[in-house]
Write a structure and sequence with these properties.
The complex is a heterodimer. Chain A contains 11 helices and 9 strands. By secondary structure, chain A is an alpha+beta fold. Chain A has 2 domains: 131 residues, Cathepsin B, Chain A, CATH 3.90.70; 145 residues, no CATH class. In chain A, the strands form 2 sheets. In chain A, strands 1, 4, 5, 6, 7, 8 and 9 form a 7-stranded antiparallel beta sheet that branches. A two-stranded antiparallel ribbon of chain A has the order 2-3. In chain A, a hairpin with a 2-residue loop joins β2 and β3. Chain B is mostly helical. Chain B has a domain of 78 residues: Orthogonal Bundle (434 Repressor (Amino-terminal Domain)), CATH 1.10.260. Chain B is built from 7 helices and 2 strands. In chain B, α1 runs antiparallel to α2. Chain B starts with 21 loop residues before the first strand and ends with a helix. In chain B, 32% of the residues are buried. The chains are: A alpha+beta, B mainly alpha. At the A-B interface, α8, α9 and α10 of A face β1, β2, α1 and α3 of B.
Chain lengths: 341, 135
């Protein structure tokens, strides 16, 4: 292992709002296709909402503003007809690292799913048990791996042992060495078809899934729960639960407002590309929804600041606001539901 | 490569926090989506600090319990790595009800070295550190 010569792939690191769509767009760019981050995010149907109060993640009800890990990569490859490989899990640590080394020797930048807790270069305020982070490995020098993590401003390095540790992080949603890469990109990509399919799938997932905690319905359930929190759990716990929503929406590399800005940017970009008025209108509405999310955060954070001496009415206001946001998002997806591009 | 100016900030209690810049999107009145690279603004920092306050409180509480002898060191180290019992049972590979038992000093004293090694690996410490709690 030690005698291997340094391998570096000429991979360009660009910072992005979201880890996986950033990695996907950077990989596309490496293969010579101009693809912005919002575009990859939209085609890969990154937007999502689910609220699962009976599962506690970091002592707070679990909610998610994005799709399951690897959906963005997998779906954007599928809809655009790109030949890509995803290895879901390995049985052996050594094997997973060997496959990675072989890929780097061939000159293929490879995406890996990792856990955040032991990631040495990551901002310390985010070091929590979160196993759905994505980054791209693009070079190896002796014991050091070169990493492009789109949350960070600059490329980073990790040692062999550290990389094993994060790729085999344990706990909920353990990555188990999952990795993915692009094999071959066809000459002409049918972006129009990709956008159409992506929007169709997103509309289904946000408005039509027959389960009451997913999509717009989930947002409404959460809005009702927010109103009840202070009575049910007391002010201290309610403030912490509220804080966890805001944390999920604003921190952890979402690009702001729980990916709503990125999705709006996607609608706008594809609207301009295909000269579609309805898409541009939807983009405007999505942007305003995202601003509303921001407003929600500011109001909520004020509530978290003085957590024991807050009247209960404020939670009712917040719940109403959440309802309004849900209504606005429903409007967006109604508008793009039967769209012809 | 210029180094970003140090982020002097009263919200974070730990000095290492908030030193990295991230990319944010925004939407303005004219209908344009913009990108900026910068630090988190105050509301975001507040909620993040709030969660760290909770974790630190829990760790401190667990430490007091261990020193008083009403809980085993496993409780303290579990809080220290921000895990809950279910997460710990996944990380260490010990079943959930056994983990719950090992929280009590009575059962912890009777643990074999093999099981202790499992926990020690999950906590990223040595078995001796786990056995001789002095913090």
């Amino acid at each position: 292992m030690m005698e291997s010569k340094p391998m570096m792939i000429n991979y360009i690191h660009r910072q992005a709002g979201h880890c996986e769509s950033g990695a996907t767009s950077n990989l596309f760019n490496y293969y010579g296709i101009q693809m912005s981050e919002p575009m990859a995010f939209g085609i890969g149907t990154g937007i999502y909402f689910s609220y699962l109060p009976f599962i506690k993640l970091m002592f707070a009800p679990m909610m998610s503003f994005r799709n399951l890990p690897n959906t963005v990569f997998h779906r954007s490859m599928k809809y655009l007809g790109v030949d890509a490989t995803v290895i879901k899990k390995f049985n052996d640590v050594k094997e997973s690292m060997d496959v990675l080394d072989r890929n780097l020797e061939k000159g293929i930048p490879t995406g890996v799913q990792v856990g955040v807790f032991n990631l040495t270069f990551f901002p310390p305020e985010y070091r929590q048990h979160y196993n759905m982070h994505n980054m791209v490995v693009y070079g190896k020098e002796g014991n050091l791996y070169h990493i492009s993590d789109t949350v960070m401003e600059h490329p980073q390095t990790l040692t062999y042992d550290d990389l094993v540790r994060v790729r085999w992080a344990k706990g909920a949603f353990a990555p188990k060495g999952k990795m993915y890469w692009i094999n071959h990109v066809p000459e002409e990509l049918d972006i129009r078809y990709g956008v159409e399919q992506g929007i169709k799938k997103s509309v289904y997932e946000m408005t039509k899934v027959p389960f009451w905690l997913v999509g717009i319905k989930g947002m409404r359930v959460m809005a009702k729960d927010i109103r009840k929190w202070p009575k049910k759990h007391g002010n201290q716990k309610a403030a912490f639960y509220l804080g966890s929503i805001l944390r999920m929406a604003e921190d952890f590399g979402t690009g702001g407002a729980g990916f709503r800005y990125i999705y709006g940017a996607f609608l706008k970009e594809s609207g301009q590309k295909f000269d579609n008025k309805a898409l541009l209108e939807a983009a405007d509405l999505m942007g305003r929804t995202a601003n509303k999310w921001r407003e929600f955060t500011y109001l909520g954070a004020r509530n978290c600041k003085n957590r024991s001496s807050q009247p209960i009415e404020d939670y009712v206001t917040l719940g109403d606001m959440m309802m309004e946001i849900a209504g606005m998002e429903e409007q967006v997806f109604k508008r793009i539901e039967k769209i012809k591009i | 490569m210029e180094t970003p100016a140090e982020n002097t900030d009263p919200v974070y209690k730990n000095k290492d926090y908030g030193q990295y810049r991230e990319l944010f999107y925004s939407y303005d009145e004219q209908g344009n989506f913009g990108k900026t690279v910068g630090y988190h603004n105050e509301p975001d920092r507040l909620v993040l600090q709030q969660s760290w306050d909770l974790f630190n409180d829990r760790t401190e509480e667990a430490r007091q319990k261990v020193l008083a002898g009403t809980a085993s060191p496993i409780v303290y180290y579990m809080e220290k790595i921000l895990a809950d019992p279910l997460g710990l049972s996944m990380m260490a590979g010990v079943s959930f009800w056994k983990v719950k038992l090992h929280f009590k000093p009575f059962f912890f004293k009777r643990l074999s070295n093999k099981t202790l090694a499992k926990y020690a690996e999950a906590f990223n410490i040595t078995v001796d550190q786990l056995k001789n709690f002095e913090q």
